[in-house]
Write a structure and sequence with these properties.
The complex is a heterodimer of chains A (416) and B (83). By secondary structure, chain A is an alpha/beta fold. In chain A, the strands form 3 sheets. In chain A, strands 5-4-6-8-1-9-15-14-10-11 form a 10-stranded mixed sheet, with helices on both faces. A 3-stranded mixed sheet of chain A has the order 2-3-7. In chain A, helix 3 packs across helix 6 and helix 7 packs across helix 13. Chain A is globular, with a radius of gyration of 20 Å. Chain B has 83 residues and is an all-alpha fold. The radius of gyration of chain B is 12 Å and the shape is globular. Chain B has a single domain, classed as Non-ribosomal Peptide Synthetase Peptidyl Carrier Protein, Chain A (Orthogonal Bundle), CATH 1.10.1200. Helices cover 55% and strands 0% of the residues of chain B. Chain B has 4 helices and no strands. Chain B starts with a helix and ends with a helix. Classes of the chains: A alpha/beta (416), B mainly alpha (83). Chains A and B meet through helix 2 of A and helix 3 of B.
Chain lengths: 416, 83
């Protein structure tokens, strides 16, 4: 076991704000995950017609004016909603906080794609005359936009930036927040990830051209990781932002503590633009376990990254089998089967959906798994129905992305 | 367009740009930006909307002519009369 750290060096989650295709807060999201309720629907995309996507249904006017919505981006709007909800959930009063000591760190898969496509579409009707190109374009597409919109909306004057990390972004935003707290750069971190990818026809078309865009007559059955009939990714929008604090600060104010972040790791495959690498995934999981000072047998729940692609799912399953095969204690699930791939938000959102397991001792399932792919067998894969288990002390969350970026986060049941 | 129609058009464009503001009591002879929250980027939206909808180009030196509702109508009337 690792040496006991002082409370100033222990980082805890004290607030959660989220927007998922099947829930506008953790209570709703968790309820949907336990009830098997999908958030995937038909969605009309420019040039492509109806595709399948996960769309969020939160009220953006809860925290923004109509003018803010017109001027900003969907990612900014999702980020503002999540950040405000997280602060409220943490029972913090922004007016009483030193806003220069709050940092905003958001993982993104991409940003600017949606806005650029929209502008090109707009000037097309003017024969591509660029004098019709919007003066709002640059502030909308700068990579820090979603985090910057949070600071504008909430008057936060500490650091803000995004972390471009493909589909590992959510875990990495969370990790960055933790690291900045450990470095004493901030006293409160808003860390997580967001995605507005459903606004871009190019993202859907790109997956389609790769042969990796999911299709199914029933939208709710389209995302089916580990099933032998899976046929690709369902693109979704979403967001999840955590309030992170040093344990010493959280205890001082009597905060509700969801969990302690004890392990985290990021590495690179250095092998391929899109195909994952089992060895580096194993290495990444081991790094996180080492940082947490625990072994594979200590993990109770593994939330898989599995996106439902033919190529990707078996690689992660092999990595998990190699590491956890001898220790068949961990129960394994997948959140994308409900909400699709929320891209930059995925790591954070999928972790959030599993945190209530510390209280209800229930593992939400992987849905749409009718015929397990022989390439994807896993011990204790929780299939289609939630499962009660006796012990939930550690949850491990995988999140991997294109260009071979891997990230793992391990959270622990909070104990003083 | 008549002067009244031009005024209604300007008000409609402003309402689209700052949808949270109440424009019902906007006075014609006082600078618009003194009466409602309308910043320089919003102002550029008015210029862009005139360009997109009516092909009207307002040179930067003439932006001052659009300071009040009345001066806007006076400035745009020769350009929108035939629309």
């Amino acid at each position: 076991m690792a040496a006991r750290k002082p409370n100033e060096a222990r980082i805890v989650i004290t607030g959660i704000g989220l927007a998922a295709p099947n829930g506008n807060n953790l209570t709703e999201f968790r309820k949907s995950l336990l009830a098997g309720k999908s958030g995937i629907q038909k969605f009309n995309v420019r040039y492509m017609g109806d595709v399948l996507a996960g769309i969020c249904h939160f009220d953006p006017l809860k925290y923004q004016k109509k003018k803010d919505l017109r001027r900003g981006t969907r990612a900014g709007s999702i980020a503002i909603y999540c950040a405000q909800e997280a602060i409220a959930d943490a029972k913090l009063d922004l007016a009483c906080l030193d806003k220069s000591r709050i940092g905003v760190y958001l993982g993104i898969t991409e940003h600017g794609t949606v806005e650029t496509e929209n502008e090109i579409y707009e000037i097309k009707q003017f024969d591509y005359d660029v004098k019709y190109w919007s003066h709002h374009h640059n502030p909308r597409v700068v990579a820090n936009n979603p985090a910057g919109e949070v600071t504008l909306n909430m008057g936060i004057t500490g650091p803000h930036y995004t972390l471009g990390a493909a589909c590992a972004g959510g875990n990495i935003g969370l990790t960055q927040g933790l690291q900045m707290l450990l470095l004493n750069e901030v006293d409160l971190a808003l860390g997580g990830g967001v995605s507005e990818s459903t606004g871009s026809f190019g993202i859907f078309a790109g997956f389609k051209s790769e042969g990796a865009l999911a299709s199914h007559p029933d939208p709710e059955k389209a995302c089916r990781p580990f099933d032998k009939d899976r046929n690709g990714v369902v693109v979704s929008e979403g967001g999840c932002i955590f309030v992170l604090e040093r344990l010493s600060d959280a205890l001082k104010r009597g905060a509700k503590i969801y969990s302690e972040i004890v392990g985290y790791s990021i590495n690179s495959d250095a092998t391929d633009f899109i195909f994952p690498d089992k060895e580096r995934q194993i290495q990444c999981i081991k790094l996180a376990l080492n940082k947490a000072g625990i072994s594979p047998e200590d993990i109770d729940i593994i939330n898989t990254h599995g996106t439902g692609t033919i190529e990707g799912d078996p690689v992660e399953c092999k990595a998990i089998r190699e590491l956890f095969g001898e220790y068949p204690y961990a129960h394994i699930n997948n959140t994308k089967s409900f909400i699709g791939h929320t891209m930059g938000a995925a790591g954070a959102l999928e972790l959030a959906g599993n945190l209530p397991s510390f209280e209800d001792y229930t593992v939400h399932p992987t849905i749409n798994l009718d015929h397990l792919d022989p390439e994807c067998p896993l011990n204790n894969l929780v299939i289609n129905e939630p499962k009660k288990i006796d012990k939930v002390d550690y949850i491990l969350n995988n999140s991997f992305g294109m260009l071979g970026i891997n990230s793992v986060v391990i959270v622990k049941r909070f104990e003083e | 367009m008549t002067k009244e129609q031009i005024k209604d058009t300007i008000l409609e464009i402003i309402a689209q740009i700052i949808p949270d503001e109440d424009l019902s009591n906007l006075k014609g002879d006082i600078p618009i930006r003194e009466q409602v929250e309308l910043d320089s980027m919003d102002f550029l939206d008015i210029i862009m909307e005139l360009r997109k909808r009516y092909g009207i180009e307002v040179p930067e030196d003439d932006y001052i002519q659009l300071a009040t509702l009345d001066s806007s109508v006076a400035y745009l009337e020769p350009r929108m009369r035939e629309l």
